[in-house]
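Hey team,

Filing this mostly as a record. A colleague (T.K.) asked me to run one chain through the structure pipeline before their review meeting, and I want the input and output archived in the tracker in case anyone asks later how it was produced. No errors, nothing strange. Just documentation.

Input sequence:
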Amino acid sequence: MTDLFDDAARGLQGRIAPLPQRMRPRSLDDLAGQRHVLAEGSALRRAITDDRPPSMILFGPPGVGKTTLARIVAEHTGAVFEELSAVSARVDDVRAVIRAARDRLGGNGLRTILFIDEIHRFDKRQQDTVLHAVEEGTVTLIGATTENPYFQVNAALLSRCTVIELEPLSLDDLADVLSRGAAELGAELPDTVSAEIARRAGGDARSALQTLELVWETARAEGVPVEQRHVDDAARKRPLRYDRDGDQHYDHASAFIKSMRGGDADAAVYYLAVMLESGEDPRFIARRMIILASEDVGNADPRALLIAVAAAQAVEHVGLPEAQLSLSQAVVYLARAPKSNAAATAIWSARRDVRDEGPRLPPATLRSGGYGGASARGHGEGYVSPHDDPGGAPLAYLPEELRGRRYYRPSGAGEEREEDRGDHDG
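Output structure:
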């Protein structure tokens, strides 16, 4: 009787399951996007079609096909396919799968593929349990994660797996997904509406199909064709994927800094907006701007540091949301400012010499003569302040062993002009 009810439930699920579930691809040809790793003749595609998939970690944002790819492998493999969710699986569950896999392998040579969804949620002990089974060849592991595995999965397990990054779907890929979804629903979907759903989906096929289904059901309930207003109603603000201690944080901060360094004010303001909308600490943003003002603008525009510090003060005194104005103003200024890293390379080079060679003593002329016995040691002897004798002969300021060495080399950009330094070094 239970089997009859199970069969009936499966039959109903095929009709009432959400559209993304009903539209889940069953073959590599049906899988949208990911041509960079699944193109005809690619190593991964050949491995899957030849039923020799490697242990792998599938990494990418939601709705790009991680679980779908794992299930396509399940459809095509001659191995037993075991599936666990790291959210609910316990160490005992993992061990039970591995014991069964070992028995199959030893009994009749049958392989086992173990799929672990959200593998980043496994703690170290659970990951270690899987590690030994992968290392011994007892199972072939396929892990799926939305988090960067280099932050979340231990190095030993990573070294035994191929990390495959799946990318957000393009607008064209999403348009194709939506076209197939509309055919499944029997819906008329104008191109303009399809394009708007795709734009708002942010590369997520699941989100696009969910929006399409809600848009279609709303329009059908009203007895009208699908319109733009239905998309506006159905596609509310998407939750932003941004981890403040993971690679989204580092990737956007890196792009923000490099955009300012490269002089692209539009890109820099965009990445500022992403970080602010995602809840990034504005003090972190301001600190990065202060660093860039000295490291990448420097004396080509000395005002840049003042403006960056002023923006940081605005964050402290005004707070968000108003401080976004000061941050944006400063970002635009920093991006458009002439660039020089001469001050930064000067201190980096000087510190490297100190580390490599040890600190050298200043010339006796520059040493302190303000204590008893100093003059007898020649300290301060021959020193003449340039205030007292502006036209006097230049002194040697660097330690004797470093005479002629240059650390600060003006870039010539903006206000940082190459000057005639004279022979002050030696």
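Quick notes for T.K.: Confidence is low (pLDDT under 50) at residues 4-9, 420-426. Residues 191 and 322 are 39 Å apart (CA to CA).
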